Request: fold
Amino acid sequence: MINSISNYSIQNKNNSNPAFRAKWISPKKGRAYIQSIKDTFAKRIYISGHSSLDDDSLCSALMLSHIVKSQGIDALVCAKSEQLNTLYMNKSKEVHRRIKKVPDLILTVDFNDILKIPKLLTNVFEGKGNKISEHKSGLFEGTNIIGIDHRKNTNTLKGNFYLDDSAKSCCGILVRLADALGYKIGREDAKIAYCGMLSDYKKKGLIKIENGQLIKKAALLEDKNSRIVLEKIEKILDNKDKTEIHNYIDVISRLTRKEKYFLEKLKSMIQIEPNGKFAYVAIDTQDKDWAKIGMDNDTTSTLLRHFRKDTLRNSPDLNAVAIFYRTSPKDHGVYRVSFHSKDGYAHKLLKKAEVLSGKEIGNGPPDRPSGSLASVDKTETDKFVNYFVEAAKEIS
Reply:
């Protein structure tokens, strides 16, 4: 059982967590994080990002492994092979893809949702026949997990979770942690951190990239925390390194022929409800074009996000755009829905759909929630989509 660090805890109705709240993490809090790991006396430690791995999550995991190693802690970065294909650090030999032994402790980054622990564990354990529940039940309860994240939600884990919801990326927090512990960030770590930060900054609309050049928007220039931590990394990298990462982050400009075709296909599939407020695309679970581009990965996630945002921006009367899609070709795959909306409309849809279905579907920010169905059976997925269609009819 991981000991709590009561000296650095903050209280809310869900948990009592040590939190990095300052512009820069103090050395005292940095040492508290390291000590919380050492106090577990764990011999086998893994590091994992969230289950739908993206660049900020993987880059944070790699950075954390370097930082804790400098403090005398050995930890393996773990990820599923199929999630790495489209990510910047996909060829890193530091990422372990087939883990079979159950850990004593998992260090998580970019993750704090207790309801998603089973999905997190399937991200860590790729080998077949892993009977996790028979070994470390504490993993399912979150008691053998220590995490760092830049978001809070209603399902935040109890215990040793270091949260800074003022940070716009998890990599940004890791840069601050390195500074607090006196860990010198070199060129390779800087490239990792730069990629992770720009990935999340772009999603949040803080930056854009045109012709290989980074453009910082007003929202970033006014966000002193996020701007300063980015500038710290920029000073370490030369123009060649930065341009390489800029070109990588600009996903839409480097889509393959198949990906471009699918983006155009989405436009022909869109359906708008009679109230004119809700538009959606329901990708069939057997859609061959979706399968050809790898289903759910970092590139397709960016592609879908681009489509939702573009559709919402170009249709002033719309309040929400949703895309329903299968996440994996496996028979036991998941059918997911993701949103972009205005004025919390997506959250209202999600909650109404949960009432209609009688089940919890998902959560997330009011205009960017997501949900899922643990089935790819067409009868079930059709019902799932229809819950949201009916919900839209009931919401003015």
The first helix runs from residue 27 to 38. The chain is about 40% helix and 15% strand. Confidence is low (pLDDT under 50) at residues 1-22, 127-137. The longest strand covers residues 320-326.
